[in-house]
Specification:
A: 180 residues, 7 helices, B: 666 residues, alpha+beta, globular, disordered C terminus
Chain lengths: 180, 666
């Protein structure tokens, strides 16, 4: 015998799912800050630092990617990075040096301090708010559907109250959907 | 000829103004003669912009260097194919080209609707002519493509050498067609708002146009990536440059619209949201045009900075204010059914898909304008480069591909636990196995493993859908496998075409993931006979050759490609990376050479070269699965073709929707 879902049970499920959707949005948001916080003990490598810095020749690429012929910026920067690594400096120290020398614009990504935090967080906050909005909208639509507030399309037959018929209809529609 | 071109754009501008006035007055007064006059103005506008384009093309082909545009973007030695592409190689020509594509779209819309949508068409005509008049006004009053110089230079400055590439001859036209054709759904949306006829008619009328512009935006972006890959020589294809972002954003919102519009068609929901997406997509195309021509954000792709930025900004503001104002005005008429039986349904999955797509579009927008915001707020210039976009968009992209797997198979209305299990158990299992296999084979990047798993899941759902549908037909109709498959697709082209498009997008996604995470690269100085071993290949430098003509001097290295290392290596071919030196303008460029297979690209760049010693610096990349991106583009094209091909069921519906010619608007 098929057990019929109750309106309360459905609402509970909807709330659980709305919270799950929020959790999903939060989980998606997690990797960004995790990825941008630099590990202090991290050993600086040439590749990482070349990727952390933007070439100043105007190509818009990172120092690593810029391979312009005799680039007046990329080639000296690569050499300078190598010298700092050879001197045993950490990634943070080297980045601080370049930031002092060329200004913040040399960093290929915004820092994670002060106003720049907004660059990293606003997209995920916006998506989380969008997820919240969708959750609220879904709950409202679900409630209005339960309460039968939305009129059926003209000509639609009235839904049957017979649980057995309804269950059969569900099964057949499900099967049809699967087959079509 | 320049006088004819100049006259054509002036007349085109005046005709557009008349067409706008006649169409709006005709619609308000219900005057069929004025409406017809507006329609004729649209045809005249198309003809006049066509004449202007032909005039500029003639001037380019006849090398009339007295015309400033011809002198700036061509030369007597420029090959004819690139001379034609110079038509859109400069700012003035690109604006004229944009207007011409819009005029062609307008003419096609007039022909398609000559006996349909009679209430809406005057507003459609007026909206499209407003956009056309704006672009022509720039050419008439600010930047004349037919401007003559006080003297005639002996030689032209030539087209930028970076644009002298096959992909650049097809990338801008594709992107422009994608950009400009978004005007059609936008114009029908405005017409629906103006007339208050906000049912599904405008959506059904513009369905193919929306798909058409989405398709060309896809192609435009892919062709642009291909150009960057073969021309810029840094081993990649996408650098999150502001102009690349400007082309990507409307693609994202158009993709969101193509999905959410299905909910409106099937469930009569999301009317306001769909209208907003159409407006947003069109506004983003204008925003992209503003970015490339304003100089507000620095970009390697920008045209020369001009004084046109403010005009595009005002136009963009006007579009947003008017269209959002009309949307708010019509909100009471845009009430939807808003029924939802279960959050486990395709409706809910599509909403999540829209959230992610618009979320990515917002993220890209935010990253693009953040340097400007930072400068306003802090007075400090900062860079928002590829590492930012990659980090922020990676989780969103994976979530999107996961939903690509969920959306097609989850049931409309409500999916039971049993049907969810039936639909997803096998694809989920396949995805998990693929991820585990990637890990066992050495993939240690978290995102890469998850991406491979999710992409396999999405492919598996599509595969099972085709397999199951085919088997049902075989069982019920007794058809052979290929017959069953072709009829399955033929009977529901939109659905199965969509699945094929998904396969193409997943292939592109896999290409992006693999080439980003598993890329190998090495840079080394080599004497003739030296070799580099990388990614299972041996690359041997065999010598240098030089070719010279009036246009360009080519220095190319002969590099043999060997499969394997050491004595067991087998020679499989040769690549010829080049250094070019263009003579007008005097500019060196790098031409990469690629040994491409289905699994990977061996990408060889000739860095620098010392003639006396023949010592050459090579940069060699092994980029996995790059060809999947281009094959994915081909699959996407096939899928879009299947979707757009009219089904038998649609043909009588179109015929019955027609109103007898000559009938007056209600």
């Amino acid at each position: 015998m098929t057990e019929q879902p109750t309106a309360t049970g459905d609402r509970h499920r909807v709330r659980s799912l709305a919270s799950a959707a929020l959790l999903l949005a939060a989980l998606l948001a997690l990797p960004a800050p995790m990825l941008v916080v630099p590990a202090r003990a991290e050993i600086a490598t040439q590749y990482q630092l070349e990727t952390d810095l933007t070439c100043q020749c105007g190509c818009g690429l990172t120092v690593h990617s810029c391979n312009h012929l005799n680039c007046g910026s990329g080639i000296p920067l690569k050499k300078e990075i190598a010298e700092h690594i050879a001197a045993g400096e950490t990634r943070e120290q080297i980045l601080a040096h370049f930031q002092t020398k060329y200004g913040e614009k040399i960093l290929s990504s915004p820092t994670t301090t002060g106003f720049n935090i907004a660059a990293w967080t606003v997209p995920f906050v916006a998506i989380a708010l969008g997820g919240l909005l969708i959750g609220v909208v879904l709950v409202r639509w679900r409630r209005s559907t339960d309460a039968g507030e939305t009129p059926s399309r003209t000509g639609d037959p009235a839904p049957s109250d017979d649980p057995a018929l309804r269950a059969r209809l569900e099964r057949e529609l499900d099967d049809l959907e699967r087959r079509s | 000829m320049s006088e004819i071109g100049r006259l054509a754009i002036i007349l085109g501008f005046l005709v557009a103004l008349w067409g706008i006035a006649a169409s709006v007055l005709g619609a308000v007064r219900r005057d069929a003669r004025l409406i017809d006059s507006g329609k004729h103005a649209a045809y005249a506008f198309s003809a006049l912009t066509g004449i202007a384009v032909l005039a500029l093309l003639y001037l380019l082909l006849t090398r009339d260097f007295n015309v400033e545009y011809v002198a700036s973007y061509s030369s007597s030695t420029l090959p004819i194919w690139y001379t034609i592409s110079a038509l859109w190689g400069g700012m003035k020509g690109s604006l004229l080209w944009w207007t011409f594509i819009l005029a062609v779209c307008n003419a096609v819309v007039q022909v398609q609707n000559h006996d349909k949508n009679r209430d809406q068409m005057p507003w459609v005509t007026a909206t499209m002519l407003v956009v056309g008049a704006f672009f022509l006004s720039l050419l008439v009053f600010i930047t004349d493509p037919f401007e003559r110089l006080p003297f005639t230079p002996r030689e032209g400055s030539d087209l930028n050498p970076l644009l002298q590439n096959y992909w650049m001859t097809i990338h801008p036209p594709s992107l422009y067609v994608g950009f400009v054709s978004t005007t059609v759904p936008f114009a029908f949306a405005i017409a629906a708002l103006a007339t208050g006829k906000l049912g599904d008619a405008w959506i059904r009328t513009t369905r193919r146009w929306a798909l058409f512009s989405w398709f060309f935006l896809s192609l435009g972006n892919l062709f642009g990536a291909a150009w960057a890959y073969v021309v810029l020589g840094w081993g990649g294809y996408w650098a999150w440059d502001p102009v690349e972002n400007a082309a990507f954003m409307p693609w994202l919102t158009a993709t969101a619209y193509l999905h959410s519009v299905m909910i409106q068609e099937k469930k009569d929901m999301l009317k306001v949201w769909n209208m907003a997406l159409v407006i947003l997509t069109f506004a983003l195309t204008i925003f992209g045009t503003f970015l490339t021509r304003s100089g507000v954000i620095s970009s390697v792709h920008s045209f020369t900075q001009s004084g046109m930025g403010p005009f595009f900004m005002y136009f963009l503001i006007a579009i947003l204010v008017i269209s959002i104002g009309m949307l708010v005005w019509r909100l009471p008429l845009l009430k939807s059914r808003n029924e939802l039986e279960s959050v486990f349904s395709r409706e809910a999955a599509f909403l999540l898909n829209n959230l992610i797509l618009v979320g990515i579009a917002f993220t890209v927008f935010w990253g693009t304008i953040f340097p400007v915001i930072s400068e306003w707020v802090r007075g400090v210039k900062i860079t928002v480069g590829p590492p930012f976009f990659n980090k922020v968009n990676a989780p969103l992209g994976i979530a999107l591909v996961f939903l690509m797997g969920v959306g097609p198979v989850i049931a409309w209305r409500k999916a039971s636990a049993a049907s969810l299990w039936r639909s997803f158990a096998t694809p989920m299992g396949t995805g998990v196995v693929a991820g585990a296999l990637a890990f066992v084979l050495g993939a240690r990047n978290f995102y890469a493993v998850v991406a491979i798993s999710v992409a396999t899941f999405a492919l598996a759902t599509v595969w099972i859908e085709f397999w199951r549908g085919m088997r049902v037909r075989q069982a019920m109709m007794g058809e052979k496998p290929w017959t069953a498959l072709s009829r399955l697709i033929g009977k529901n082209r939109r659905r199965y075409g969509g699945y094929i498009v998904h396969v193409g997008v997943v292939m592109i996604f896999m290409g992006i993931v693999a080439s980003s995470v598993f890329k190998l690269e090495v840079q080394r100085s080599l004497h003739v006979g030296d070799s580099i071993e990388i990614g299972g290949y041996t690359v041997r430098y065999d010598g240098i050759a030089i070719e010279n003509d009036d246009h360009v001097e080519r220095t190319f290295a002969r590099v043999s490609v060997w499969d394997g290392y050491g004595p067991e290596a087998v020679r499989v071919g040769e690549v010829l990376p080049e250094k070019r030196f263009y003579k007008k303008p005097k500019q060196p460029t790098t031409e990469v050479s690629i040994w491409s297979t289905l699994g990977e690209d061996l990408y060889v760049v000739l860095g620098s070269y010392d003639p006396p010693t023949q010592l050459a610096v090579f940069q060699v990349f092994v980029n996995p699965l790059i060809s999947w991106m281009w094959i994915g583009g081909l699959v996407l094209t096939i899928g879009t073709g299947v979707c757009m091909w009219p089904s038998y069921a649609e043909r009588p519906a179109t015929a019955t929707a027609r109103v007898p010619a000559g009938s007056r608007p209600a």
